[in-house]
Design a protein that fits this description.
Chain lengths: 226, 226
Amino acid sequence: MNLSIGLIGGTGDEGRGLALRWAMAGARVTLGSRTLERAAEASEEINKLLDEPRVTPALNRDAVRGSSLVLLTVPFDHAAATLESLREDFEPGSVLIDITVPVSFDKGRASYVEPPEGSASEHLQKLLPSGVSLVAAFKTEPAHLMLDPEARLDCDTFVSSDSKEARDRVIEAIRSIEGLRPVDAGPLHNCRTIERMTVLMIGLNRRYKVRTGRFRVLGLEQPQAG
Amino acid sequence: MNLSIGLIGGTGDEGRGLALRWAMAGARVTLGSRTLERAAEASEEINKLLDEPRVTPALNRDAVRGSSLVLLTVPFDHAAATLESLREDFEPGSVLIDITVPVSFDKGRASYVEPPEGSASEHLQKLLPSGVSLVAAFKTEPAHLMLDPEARLDCDTFVSSDSKEARDRVIEAIRSIEGLRPVDAGPLHNCRTIERMTVLMIGLNRRYKVRTGRFRVLGLEQPQAG
Protein backbone atom coordinates (compact mmCIF):
# COMPACT_ATOMS: atom_id res chain seq x y z
CA MET A 1 0.00 0.00 0.00
CA ASN A 2 1.18 3.48 -0.78
CA LEU A 3 -0.91 5.50 1.61
CA SER A 4 0.38 8.49 3.53
CA ILE A 5 -1.71 9.70 6.45
CA GLY A 6 -1.18 13.02 8.20
CA LEU A 7 -2.72 13.87 11.57
CA ILE A 8 -3.41 17.43 12.67
CA GLY A 9 -3.20 17.49 16.44
CA GLY A 10 -2.49 13.79 16.66
CA THR A 11 -1.28 13.67 20.25
CA GLY A 12 -4.65 13.03 21.95
CA ASP A 13 -6.27 9.65 22.48
CA GLU A 14 -8.18 9.76 19.18
CA GLY A 15 -5.15 10.87 17.19
CA ARG A 16 -2.79 8.32 18.70
CA GLY A 17 -5.36 5.56 18.27
CA LEU A 18 -5.81 6.40 14.60
CA ALA A 19 -2.06 6.75 14.06
CA LEU A 20 -1.64 3.26 15.48
CA ARG A 21 -4.40 1.69 13.39
CA TRP A 22 -3.25 3.30 10.13
CA ALA A 23 0.35 2.29 10.85
CA MET A 24 -0.79 -1.28 11.56
CA ALA A 25 -2.53 -1.12 8.18
CA GLY A 26 0.80 -0.40 6.53
CA ALA A 27 0.37 3.34 5.93
CA ARG A 28 3.12 5.89 6.38
CA VAL A 29 1.87 8.15 9.19
CA THR A 30 2.91 11.71 9.99
CA LEU A 31 1.75 12.68 13.45
CA GLY A 32 1.43 16.45 13.66
CA SER A 33 1.25 18.76 16.64
CA ARG A 34 1.77 22.42 17.40
CA THR A 35 5.13 21.53 18.91
CA LEU A 36 7.59 19.02 17.54
CA GLU A 37 8.37 17.84 21.04
CA ARG A 38 4.84 16.67 21.79
CA ALA A 39 4.56 15.11 18.34
CA ALA A 40 7.81 13.21 18.99
CA GLU A 41 6.58 11.89 22.35
CA ALA A 42 3.31 10.63 20.92
CA SER A 43 5.00 9.13 17.85
CA GLU A 44 7.52 7.28 20.00
CA GLU A 45 4.70 5.85 22.12
CA ILE A 46 2.97 4.49 19.01
CA ASN A 47 6.13 3.23 17.33
CA LYS A 48 6.89 1.13 20.42
CA LEU A 49 3.67 -0.78 19.75
CA LEU A 50 4.65 -1.55 16.15
CA ASP A 51 7.02 -4.10 14.63
CA GLU A 52 8.77 -1.33 12.75
CA PRO A 53 8.51 2.43 13.28
CA ARG A 54 6.00 3.91 10.83
CA VAL A 55 5.01 7.10 12.61
CA THR A 56 7.02 10.28 12.06
CA PRO A 57 6.51 13.38 14.22
CA ALA A 58 6.00 16.75 12.53
CA LEU A 59 4.54 20.18 12.97
CA ASN A 60 0.89 20.27 11.92
CA ARG A 61 1.66 22.12 8.68
CA ASP A 62 4.11 19.46 7.59
CA ALA A 63 1.61 16.70 8.40
CA VAL A 64 -0.83 18.48 6.08
CA ARG A 65 1.64 19.11 3.27
CA GLY A 66 3.09 15.68 2.77
CA SER A 67 0.02 13.43 3.13
CA SER A 68 -2.54 12.02 0.74
CA LEU A 69 -5.19 11.92 3.49
CA VAL A 70 -5.19 14.39 6.38
CA LEU A 71 -7.04 13.70 9.63
CA LEU A 72 -8.26 16.46 11.88
CA THR A 73 -7.94 15.00 15.38
CA VAL A 74 -8.03 18.07 17.60
CA PRO A 75 -11.01 18.57 19.95
CA PHE A 76 -13.91 20.31 18.21
CA ASP A 77 -13.41 23.48 20.26
CA HIS A 78 -10.01 24.00 18.64
CA ALA A 79 -10.91 22.68 15.21
CA ALA A 80 -11.93 25.92 13.50
CA ALA A 81 -8.92 27.93 14.71
CA THR A 82 -6.58 25.10 13.82
CA LEU A 83 -7.97 24.79 10.31
CA GLU A 84 -7.78 28.55 9.76
CA SER A 85 -4.11 28.52 10.68
CA LEU A 86 -3.40 25.75 8.15
CA ARG A 87 -5.44 27.02 5.20
CA GLU A 88 -2.35 27.76 3.12
CA ASP A 89 -0.89 24.33 3.66
CA PHE A 90 -3.59 22.25 1.96
CA GLU A 91 -2.90 21.30 -1.62
CA PRO A 92 -5.81 21.42 -4.07
CA GLY A 93 -7.37 17.99 -4.47
CA SER A 94 -6.46 16.91 -0.95
CA VAL A 95 -8.92 15.35 1.45
CA LEU A 96 -9.48 16.26 5.09
CA ILE A 97 -11.03 13.61 7.31
CA ASP A 98 -12.92 15.23 10.18
CA ILE A 99 -13.44 13.12 13.29
CA THR A 100 -14.66 15.87 15.63
CA VAL A 101 -17.84 15.81 17.70
CA PRO A 102 -19.05 18.84 19.67
CA VAL A 103 -19.85 17.56 23.16
CA SER A 104 -20.23 19.27 26.48
CA PHE A 105 -20.16 17.51 29.83
CA ASP A 106 -22.17 18.33 32.91
CA LYS A 107 -21.53 16.12 35.93
CA GLY A 108 -20.29 13.36 33.65
CA ARG A 109 -23.33 13.53 31.36
CA ALA A 110 -22.57 14.29 27.74
CA SER A 111 -24.71 16.57 25.58
CA TYR A 112 -24.47 17.31 21.89
CA VAL A 113 -23.70 20.95 21.17
CA GLU A 114 -25.34 21.56 17.81
CA PRO A 115 -23.34 23.92 15.58
CA PRO A 116 -25.34 26.51 13.59
CA GLU A 117 -24.66 24.58 10.36
CA GLY A 118 -26.23 21.44 11.88
CA SER A 119 -23.07 19.43 12.55
CA ALA A 120 -19.36 19.86 13.22
CA SER A 121 -18.44 18.56 9.78
CA GLU A 122 -20.76 20.95 7.97
CA HIS A 123 -19.37 23.78 10.10
CA LEU A 124 -15.75 22.91 9.33
CA GLN A 125 -16.34 22.25 5.64
CA LYS A 126 -17.08 25.95 5.21
CA LEU A 127 -13.61 26.85 6.46
CA LEU A 128 -11.67 24.80 3.94
CA PRO A 129 -10.00 26.32 0.89
CA SER A 130 -11.75 25.48 -2.36
CA GLY A 131 -10.51 22.28 -3.94
CA VAL A 132 -10.16 20.55 -0.56
CA SER A 133 -12.85 17.98 0.25
CA LEU A 134 -14.05 17.18 3.71
CA VAL A 135 -15.00 13.63 4.65
CA ALA A 136 -16.44 12.76 8.04
CA ALA A 137 -15.35 9.43 9.54
CA PHE A 138 -14.09 7.80 12.75
CA LYS A 139 -16.66 9.66 14.83
CA THR A 140 -18.14 6.77 16.79
CA GLU A 141 -15.30 4.35 17.57
CA PRO A 142 -14.01 4.09 21.12
CA ALA A 143 -10.52 5.63 21.43
CA HIS A 144 -9.89 3.17 24.24
CA LEU A 145 -10.05 0.25 21.79
CA MET A 146 -8.27 2.01 18.95
CA LEU A 147 -5.26 2.55 21.21
CA ASP A 148 -4.90 -1.11 22.18
CA PRO A 149 -3.13 -2.96 19.35
CA GLU A 150 -4.40 -6.29 20.70
CA ALA A 151 -8.07 -5.20 20.72
CA ARG A 152 -10.29 -6.27 17.86
CA LEU A 153 -12.19 -3.26 16.56
CA ASP A 154 -14.95 -5.37 15.07
CA CYS A 155 -17.24 -2.45 14.26
CA ASP A 156 -18.30 0.01 11.58
CA THR A 157 -17.28 3.57 10.87
CA PHE A 158 -19.74 5.89 9.15
CA VAL A 159 -18.20 7.78 6.24
CA SER A 160 -20.00 10.78 4.80
CA SER A 161 -19.11 13.57 2.42
CA ASP A 162 -20.73 15.81 -0.14
CA SER A 163 -17.99 14.72 -2.53
CA LYS A 164 -18.76 11.19 -3.66
CA GLU A 165 -15.25 10.88 -5.07
CA ALA A 166 -13.57 11.83 -1.78
CA ARG A 167 -15.96 9.60 0.15
CA ASP A 168 -15.11 6.62 -2.04
CA ARG A 169 -11.40 7.34 -1.69
CA VAL A 170 -11.63 7.35 2.11
CA ILE A 171 -13.84 4.25 2.16
CA GLU A 172 -11.27 2.43 0.05
CA ALA A 173 -8.42 3.53 2.32
CA ILE A 174 -10.24 2.49 5.52
CA ARG A 175 -10.66 -1.02 4.12
CA SER A 176 -6.97 -1.52 4.90
CA ILE A 177 -7.64 -1.13 8.65
CA GLU A 178 -8.32 -4.53 10.14
CA GLY A 179 -11.68 -5.06 11.79
CA LEU A 180 -13.09 -1.65 10.90
CA ARG A 181 -15.72 -1.65 8.17
CA PRO A 182 -16.41 1.65 6.40
CA VAL A 183 -20.14 2.23 5.87
CA ASP A 184 -21.13 4.66 3.11
CA ALA A 185 -23.22 7.15 5.08
CA GLY A 186 -23.97 9.45 2.17
CA PRO A 187 -23.87 13.25 2.19
CA LEU A 188 -22.38 15.33 4.96
CA HIS A 189 -25.69 16.35 6.54
CA ASN A 190 -25.92 12.82 7.92
CA CYS A 191 -23.25 13.90 10.40
CA ARG A 192 -26.13 15.49 12.33
CA THR A 193 -27.06 11.93 13.18
CA ILE A 194 -23.61 10.36 13.39
CA GLU A 195 -22.22 12.99 15.77
CA ARG A 196 -25.25 12.53 18.03
CA MET A 197 -24.62 8.78 17.93
CA THR A 198 -21.24 9.44 19.54
CA VAL A 199 -22.97 11.23 22.39
CA LEU A 200 -25.53 8.43 22.68
CA MET A 201 -22.63 5.97 22.91
CA ILE A 202 -20.93 7.99 25.66
CA GLY A 203 -24.19 7.61 27.60
CA LEU A 204 -24.43 3.90 26.86
CA ASN A 205 -20.83 3.38 27.99
CA ARG A 206 -21.63 5.20 31.21
CA ARG A 207 -24.89 3.31 31.78
CA TYR A 208 -23.35 -0.09 31.05
CA LYS A 209 -20.06 0.77 32.82
CA VAL A 210 -17.89 -0.06 29.82
CA ARG A 211 -15.60 1.88 27.49
CA THR A 212 -15.98 -0.38 24.48
CA GLY A 213 -19.46 0.41 23.11
CA ARG A 214 -19.52 0.70 19.33
CA PHE A 215 -21.89 0.40 16.40
CA ARG A 216 -22.35 -2.31 13.84
CA VAL A 217 -24.90 -2.12 11.05
CA LEU A 218 -26.32 -5.51 10.13
CA GLY A 219 -28.15 -6.46 6.96
CA LEU A 220 -26.34 -4.28 4.43
CA GLU A 221 -25.32 -7.23 2.30
CA GLN A 222 -27.46 -8.00 -0.73
CA PRO A 223 -29.75 -10.95 -0.03
CA GLN A 224 -28.44 -14.03 -1.79
CA ALA A 225 -30.46 -15.22 -4.75
CA GLY A 226 -32.30 -18.30 -3.59
CA MET B 1 -45.83 -15.02 30.48
CA ASN B 2 -48.75 -12.87 31.43
CA LEU B 3 -48.22 -9.94 29.13
CA SER B 4 -51.01 -8.13 27.33
CA ILE B 5 -50.04 -5.83 24.49
CA GLY B 6 -52.38 -3.32 22.85
CA LEU B 7 -51.64 -1.62 19.56
CA ILE B 8 -53.12 1.74 18.61
CA GLY B 9 -53.36 1.84 14.84
CA GLY B 10 -51.84 -1.60 14.46
CA THR B 11 -52.85 -2.25 10.85
CA GLY B 12 -49.74 -0.79 9.16
CA ASP B 13 -46.47 -2.63 8.52
CA GLU B 14 -44.92 -1.58 11.83
CA GLY B 15 -48.01 -2.47 13.84
CA ARG B 16 -48.53 -5.84 12.20
CA GLY B 17 -44.83 -6.66 12.54
CA LEU B 18 -44.90 -5.87 16.25
CA ALA B 19 -48.17 -7.73 16.76
CA LEU B 20 -46.55 -10.79 15.19
CA ARG B 21 -43.36 -10.60 17.24
CA TRP B 22 -45.17 -10.06 20.55
CA ALA B 23 -47.55 -12.90 19.75
CA MET B 24 -44.59 -15.15 18.91
CA ALA B 25 -43.20 -14.17 22.32
CA GLY B 26 -46.33 -15.54 23.94
CA ALA B 27 -48.11 -12.27 24.71
CA ARG B 28 -51.82 -11.71 24.35
CA VAL B 29 -52.13 -9.04 21.64
CA THR B 30 -55.02 -6.67 20.98
CA LEU B 31 -54.67 -5.07 17.57
CA GLY B 32 -56.53 -1.77 17.51
CA SER B 33 -57.74 0.33 14.63
CA ARG B 34 -60.28 3.07 14.01
CA THR B 35 -62.56 0.49 12.43
CA LEU B 36 -63.13 -3.02 13.68
CA GLU B 37 -63.16 -4.28 10.12
CA ARG B 38 -59.60 -3.21 9.36
CA ALA B 39 -58.43 -4.49 12.74
CA ALA B 40 -60.02 -7.85 11.98
CA GLU B 41 -58.32 -8.10 8.58
CA ALA B 42 -54.87 -7.35 10.00
CA SER B 43 -55.39 -9.68 12.98
CA GLU B 44 -56.41 -12.51 10.73
CA GLU B 45 -53.32 -12.01 8.59
CA ILE B 46 -51.08 -12.26 11.66
CA ASN B 47 -52.95 -15.17 13.24
CA LYS B 48 -52.42 -17.20 10.07
CA LEU B 49 -48.66 -16.96 10.70
CA LEU B 50 -48.99 -18.30 14.24
CA ASP B 51 -49.46 -21.80 15.61
CA GLU B 52 -52.46 -20.61 17.59
CA PRO B 53 -54.38 -17.33 17.23
CA ARG B 54 -53.13 -14.81 19.77
CA VAL B 55 -54.16 -11.55 18.13
CA THR B 56 -57.60 -10.09 18.80
CA PRO B 57 -59.00 -7.18 16.77
CA ALA B 58 -60.45 -4.19 18.60
CA LEU B 59 -61.24 -0.52 18.32
CA ASN B 60 -58.26 1.59 19.41
CA ARG B 61 -59.90 2.55 22.70
CA ASP B 62 -60.38 -1.08 23.67
CA ALA B 63 -56.77 -1.89 22.78
CA VAL B 64 -55.74 0.87 25.20
CA ARG B 65 -58.09 -0.13 28.00
CA GLY B 66 -57.32 -3.79 28.34
CA SER B 67 -53.54 -3.89 27.93
CA SER B 68 -50.58 -3.69 30.30
CA LEU B 69 -48.39 -2.15 27.58
CA VAL B 70 -49.84 0.00 24.80
CA LEU B 71 -47.97 0.62 21.53
CA LEU B 72 -48.57 3.68 19.41
CA THR B 73 -48.05 2.44 15.86
CA VAL B 74 -49.76 5.10 13.76
CA PRO B 75 -47.62 7.31 11.47
CA PHE B 76 -46.20 10.31 13.30
CA ASP B 77 -48.45 12.72 11.39
CA HIS B 78 -51.52 11.14 12.99
CA ALA B 79 -49.98 10.44 16.37
CA ALA B 80 -50.96 13.60 18.22
CA ALA B 81 -54.60 13.59 17.07
CA THR B 82 -54.90 9.88 17.81
CA LEU B 83 -53.54 10.29 21.33
CA GLU B 84 -55.81 13.24 22.01
CA SER B 85 -58.83 11.16 21.05
CA LEU B 86 -57.80 8.38 23.45
CA ARG B 87 -56.81 10.48 26.48
CA GLU B 88 -59.76 9.24 28.53
CA ASP B 89 -59.00 5.59 27.86
CA PHE B 90 -55.57 5.36 29.51
CA GLU B 91 -55.55 4.05 33.04
CA PRO B 92 -53.19 5.71 35.52
CA GLY B 93 -49.96 3.75 35.80
CA SER B 94 -50.13 2.49 32.24
CA VAL B 95 -47.25 2.71 29.80
CA LEU B 96 -47.36 3.92 26.21
CA ILE B 97 -44.60 2.72 23.89
CA ASP B 98 -44.01 5.24 21.12
CA ILE B 99 -42.42 3.95 17.93
CA THR B 100 -43.02 7.00 15.71
CA VAL B 101 -40.40 8.84 13.68
CA PRO B 102 -41.17 12.10 11.85
CA VAL B 103 -39.82 11.65 8.32
CA SER B 104 -40.52 13.42 5.08
CA PHE B 105 -39.62 12.07 1.66
CA ASP B 106 -38.48 14.02 -1.38
CA LYS B 107 -37.80 11.95 -4.49
CA GLY B 108 -37.22 8.90 -2.33
CA ARG B 109 -34.77 10.66 -0.01
CA ALA B 110 -35.79 10.72 3.64
CA SER B 111 -35.29 13.72 5.92
CA TYR B 112 -35.87 14.03 9.63
CA VAL B 113 -38.57 16.55 10.50
CA GLU B 114 -37.52 17.84 13.90
CA PRO B 115 -40.49 18.54 16.20
CA PRO B 116 -40.29 21.71 18.32
CA GLU B 117 -39.71 19.62 21.45
CA GLY B 118 -36.64 18.01 19.84
CA SER B 119 -38.11 14.59 19.04
CA ALA B 120 -41.39 12.85 18.35
CA SER B 121 -41.36 11.12 21.72
CA GLU B 122 -40.80 14.33 23.65
CA HIS B 123 -43.58 15.93 21.62
CA LEU B 124 -46.05 13.13 22.32
CA GLN B 125 -45.14 12.78 25.98
CA LYS B 126 -46.64 16.23 26.57
CA LEU B 127 -50.02 15.03 25.32
CA LEU B 128 -50.41 12.13 27.73
CA PRO B 129 -52.62 12.32 30.81
CA SER B 130 -50.64 12.49 34.04
CA GLY B 131 -49.82 9.09 35.47
CA VAL B 132 -49.17 7.60 32.03
CA SER B 133 -45.50 7.07 31.16
CA LEU B 134 -44.11 7.23 27.66
CA VAL B 135 -41.32 4.88 26.61
CA ALA B 136 -39.69 5.13 23.18
CA ALA B 137 -38.70 1.85 21.54
CA PHE B 138 -38.85 -0.07 18.26
CA LYS B 139 -37.84 3.01 16.28
CA THR B 140 -34.99 1.56 14.22
CA GLU B 141 -35.95 -2.01 13.30
CA PRO B 142 -36.92 -2.82 9.73
CA ALA B 143 -40.67 -3.52 9.45
CA HIS B 144 -39.83 -5.78 6.53
CA LEU B 145 -37.99 -8.19 8.86
CA MET B 146 -40.42 -7.88 11.75
CA LEU B 147 -43.23 -9.06 9.47
CA ASP B 148 -41.47 -12.22 8.35
CA PRO B 149 -41.83 -14.89 11.05
CA GLU B 150 -38.90 -16.82 9.60
CA ALA B 151 -36.51 -13.84 9.65
CA ARG B 152 -34.04 -13.57 12.51
CA LEU B 153 -34.18 -10.09 13.97
CA ASP B 154 -30.68 -10.30 15.40
CA CYS B 155 -30.45 -6.63 16.36
CA ASP B 156 -30.94 -4.12 19.15
CA THR B 157 -33.79 -1.82 19.99
CA PHE B 158 -33.08 1.42 21.83
CA VAL B 159 -35.37 1.99 24.80
CA SER B 160 -35.59 5.41 26.39
CA SER B 161 -37.88 7.10 28.87
CA ASP B 162 -37.79 9.74 31.53
CA SER B 163 -39.39 7.19 33.85
CA LYS B 164 -36.72 4.70 34.85
CA GLU B 165 -39.41 2.39 36.19
CA ALA B 166 -41.38 2.35 32.93
CA ARG B 167 -38.17 1.94 30.94
CA ASP B 168 -37.14 -1.07 33.00
CA ARG B 169 -40.60 -2.57 32.63
CA VAL B 170 -40.47 -2.28 28.83
CA ILE B 171 -36.89 -3.57 28.68
CA GLU B 172 -37.94 -6.61 30.69
CA ALA B 173 -40.93 -7.23 28.42
CA ILE B 174 -38.89 -6.91 25.21
CA ARG B 175 -36.52 -9.61 26.48
CA SER B 176 -39.28 -12.10 25.63
CA ILE B 177 -39.01 -11.25 21.91
CA GLU B 178 -36.54 -13.60 20.29
CA GLY B 179 -33.48 -12.05 18.66
CA LEU B 180 -34.26 -8.49 19.71
CA ARG B 181 -32.07 -7.09 22.46
CA PRO B 182 -33.36 -4.06 24.36
CA VAL B 183 -30.62 -1.48 24.97
CA ASP B 184 -31.15 0.96 27.83
CA ALA B 185 -30.86 4.28 25.99
CA GLY B 186 -31.53 6.47 29.00
CA PRO B 187 -33.78 9.54 29.14
CA LEU B 188 -36.23 10.51 26.44
CA HIS B 189 -34.11 13.30 24.95
CA ASN B 190 -31.93 10.58 23.42
CA CYS B 191 -34.77 10.06 20.95
CA ARG B 192 -33.35 13.07 19.14
CA THR B 193 -30.56 10.72 18.16
CA ILE B 194 -32.50 7.48 17.84
CA GLU B 195 -35.16 8.95 15.55
CA ARG B 196 -32.45 10.39 13.31
CA MET B 197 -30.83 6.95 13.24
CA THR B 198 -34.00 5.64 11.63
CA VAL B 199 -33.65 8.20 8.87
CA LEU B 200 -29.94 7.37 8.51
CA MET B 201 -30.92 3.73 8.13
CA ILE B 202 -33.52 4.52 5.45
CA GLY B 203 -30.65 6.15 3.53
CA LEU B 204 -28.31 3.19 4.12
CA ASN B 205 -30.99 0.77 2.92
CA ARG B 206 -31.41 2.84 -0.20
CA ARG B 207 -27.66 3.18 -0.81
CA TYR B 208 -26.99 -0.52 -0.24
CA LYS B 209 -30.19 -1.60 -2.02
CA VAL B 210 -31.49 -3.66 0.92
CA ARG B 211 -34.44 -3.46 3.32
CA THR B 212 -32.78 -5.24 6.21
CA GLY B 213 -30.36 -2.66 7.66
CA ARG B 214 -30.44 -2.53 11.44
CA PHE B 215 -28.28 -1.55 14.39
CA ARG B 216 -26.32 -3.62 16.84
CA VAL B 217 -24.30 -2.13 19.68
CA LEU B 218 -21.19 -4.14 20.46
CA GLY B 219 -19.10 -4.00 23.61
CA LEU B 220 -21.81 -3.36 26.21
CA GLU B 221 -20.93 -6.46 28.20
CA GLN B 222 -18.72 -6.00 31.22
CA PRO B 223 -15.17 -7.10 30.42
CA GLN B 224 -14.50 -10.46 32.04
CA ALA B 225 -12.16 -10.42 35.00
CA GLY B 226 -9.14 -12.23 34.06
